[in-house]
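Supplementary material to the annual report.
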Amino acid sequence: SQQGEEDPQALSIQEGENATMNCSYKTSINNLQWYRQNSGRGLVHLILIRSNEREKHSGRLRVTLDTSKKSSSLLITASRAADTASYFCATDGGNTGKLIFGQGTTLQVKP
Amino acid sequence: DADVTQTPRNRITKTGKRIMLECSQTKGHDRMYWYRQDPGLGLRLIYYSFDVKDINKGEISDGYSVSRQAQAKFSLSLESAIPNQTALYFCATSRSGYTEAFFGQGTRLTVV
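Predicted assembly:
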């Protein structure tokens, strides 16, 4: 089964609003990552947060990690139409080294 | 040129045919992965390889096989394609110790 479960599955907001996506996982991790996928294209890495970090920022992105709850959230502030895409969390499965992805959140930002 | 190149980009094949999807990378990464993407199911790991002599099954390896011909090349084969293998397939690479992955553009496979 999938390591990561994402919520919501779909999100539609107006340009300028903030978008929050959540990810839950099942096993211990060394790090958690977020990726973006434009329709039918390859995934692009956005940000990585290590298990000993609680929060990380990159531009308009803010990621939090709560290892006690096995959950993470991705916040995109001041969204733009160009942020329309699917967003996936991925975990490294602890010491396995393999990357396991969640089901993704499809974000639509309306201009 | 793309760092991770998948060929072909699109393929239509008939049930029962053998088909190979190829992936090559110029990033010098030791780890390579094959994923399958279906609508609503995210990406599921088929096989992964940490070096040329290390091949591991992922979540959904049945019906698939792989070959790591060199550090830069990782091929996925469907020995006898079936319609429920119709999907978007992605190759990815990463460097050991850094699990950030770099993806190819994908191969859209249709089995009729």
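The mean pLDDT of chain A is 91.
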